[in-house]
């Protein structure tokens, strides 16, 4: 484990061991352009207390939670589509291979 650096916290301006705050959430499309965590040029270096407060803010952000919910729904739908596509894939690949062969012999 690397020793955290001691410097001035970006939030409380106290000299403390600092940790880089990196948001863990994701976005669907345009959400990230209005997101306070994703919009900043540089993620802040925070002391343990401010880091925890920031994390709570991120966890409780309604727009992020909305995105996460939509994301989960899309993932579930995608999983169903992928399962169905997998079933059709063998047939499609067979057709593609046959088409390629036909094209190859035509030229
Ligand atoms: Zn702090
Ligand atoms: Zn964000």
Describe this entry's structure for a reader:
The chain has 107 residues and is mainly α. It has one domain. The protein is built from three helices and three strands. It has a three-stranded antiparallel sheet with strand order 1-2-3. The model has no long low-confidence stretch (mean pLDDT 89). The chain binds zinc ion (ZN) (2 copies).
Give the biggest beta sheet.
3 strands, antiparallel
Total number of β-strand segments? 3
Number of domains: 1
Give the averaged pLDDT, no decimals: 89
- Given as residue ranges, the uncertain stretches (5+ residues, pLDDT < 50) are none
- Classification by helices and strands: mainly alpha
The gyration radius over C-alpha positions equals 24 Å
Strand content bin: 5-15%
Molecules bound to protein = zinc ion
Number of helices: 3
Euclidean distance between termini CA atoms:
63 Å
Q: Going across the major beta sheet, what is the strand order?
A: 1-2-3
- Spell out the helices and strands N to C: EEHEHH
Please estimate the helix content.
Answer: 55-70%
Assign an overall shape.
Answer: elongated
Describe, in short, the structure shown.
The chain is mostly helical and 107 residues long. The protein has helices spanning 36-39, 48-60, 62-106, and strands spanning 5-8, 15-20, 45-46.
Keywords:
binds zinc ion, 3 helices, three-stranded antiparallel sheet, about 110 residues, mainly alpha
């Amino acid at each position: 484990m690397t020793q955290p650096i001691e410097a001035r916290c970006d939030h409380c301006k106290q000299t403390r061991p600092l940790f880089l705050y990196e948001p863990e959430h994701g976005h669907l499309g345009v959400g990230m352009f209005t997101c306070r965590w994703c919009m900043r040029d540089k993620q802040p270096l925070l002391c343990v207390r401010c880091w925890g407060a920031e994390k709570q803010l991120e966890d409780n952000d309604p727009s992020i939670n909305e995105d996460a919910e939509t994301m989960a729904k899309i993932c579930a739908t995608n999983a169903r589509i992928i399962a169905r596509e997998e079933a059709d894939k063998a047939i499609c690949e067979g057709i593609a291979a046959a088409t390629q062969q036909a094209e190859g012999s035509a030229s």
